[in-house]
Write a structure and sequence with these properties.
Strand content: 15-25%
Helix content: 10-25%
Number of domains: 2
Structural class: alpha+beta
Strand order of the largest sheet: 4-5-3-9
CATH class of the largest domain: Alpha Beta
Shape: globular
Largest sheet: 4 strands, antiparallel
CATH superfamily of the largest domain: Peptidase S8/S53 domain
CATH topology of the largest domain: Rossmann fold
Radius of gyration: 23 Å
Length: 527
Amino acid sequence: MSVRESRPSPPSGFVHGGPAHPDTSLDLRIALVQNNPEGLINALYEVSTPGSPSYGEHLSKEETESFVAPSPKTVDAVNTWLSQAGLNASKITPTGDWLSINIPVGTANELFDADFSVFTHSATGTQTVRTLQYSIPSKLVGHLDFVHPTISFPSPHTRGRPVAYASSSGGEQLTPTSCDTFAVTPHCVQTIYNIPTTLATQSSNQLGVTAYLGQYANQADLTAFMEVFRSDIKSKSATTFKLTTLDKGQNPQNGRLAGVEGNTDTQYTVGLASGVPVTFISVGPQNSDGDLFGLLDTANYLLSQSNPPHVITTSYGSDEPDISLPLANSGDGGVGGGAPGETCGATFLPTFPSGCPYITLVGATSFASSSSHTEVGASFSSGGFSNYFGTPSYQAPAVKSYLSSLGSTYKGKYNASGRAYPDVAAIGTNIVLVIDDQLAGVDGTSPASPMWASIVALLNDQLISHGKKPLGFLNPWLYANPSAFHDVTSGSNPGCNTNGFPATKGWDPVTGLGTPNFAALKTAAGL
């Protein structure tokens, strides 16, 4: 046997509670070694980098699968081993690079030379079954990539319900056009970012919203939201969303079950991406402990589609050290991780999937004052540098410039050669929404992500209407067009008993390249 993954101790806050009962059932995912992941990454950059001869020529589902399919030898080796153990694996991806098995803890301990135990998060009471080490047969090294969930831990953090609005601090009632430190409405976002209000026309242009942890989206709340804040939209189809469920997911319409995340994400996609078809993807109860099964299953579902949504917005994440590096390869706490008050060690705490180079990470801003639309970095805007992924080429010059200005500040507290985030930002404080038929407000990077998704979806609508290809992987294009943003030069993201990174001219790890200017982004897209 060869040790495949291990960690010296559970993540901060989790306490070992003894061995799991041997009859406890485990649903495990087995990742097989893909045949050419480096080729896939190279192809991604070729179609995503402005100036490349292949720019915009996105790969088909079948072309993508050719890079990730495991070799026949790998498939045979892993399946033979599982069969000898009396296990039948199910393919959960079209190419078979992910398998699923259901196995009792006792059998799993023997098969993987592991010690699956019960761990409890002391602050929240969240319980989970994990092992701190597991092994695979030496003959499977190079065939079996990793097993999940084993040493990766779920995020214990949950979002609370926002406080309902009564009136502004100055005594004025909230209006549909409110745009100050008290309340931000869709009209406000459209105004400050020059977002068009005309309806999109291209039905092939889809926008997806993911939902986990029982965060349901309420259609009645969305209808009320649209009637107040987008009364100009008369088309019924442009004031609703379609529902897709995974893993026995649901979306009950009892107003008391409406989720802050679910409602925020649907209201600020339907409300801003005027007329773009929105699909709400609700992932089921087996992921209610915050486990990354939800992200994996969502990704695998999208990969199985011939025409998936062009844009996906996700408002969920974990702290990077909670996730194993092999798993990472496939929040709202400043430099202190995924939530305010996170326990810090000697270094800052990166978040996941923020540090992944292949997503666009959105930070948050707030208004400097009630009388000005000048934006500053929000204190909770998670930003920093990954310890898992290196600085990608598309952002290297921008990051180098920032580090030069930062000098020796926080030296040793972050990985200066890591993938830096966020990439962009949007307003994220006092965002107005409707929840359980009541006006409410929410702060966070969560509303900033659907704002950006809506902007990209509207750009895609115009590109398609002009006979052009939609935008794909955004980051190389974004960093090639820094003038398409409102630069945010003040604010910081305190955490870990520090003031955090400061926002400054150009890219910074609080607001990224800045907030959007739709007209400039449209020009950058060749429109």
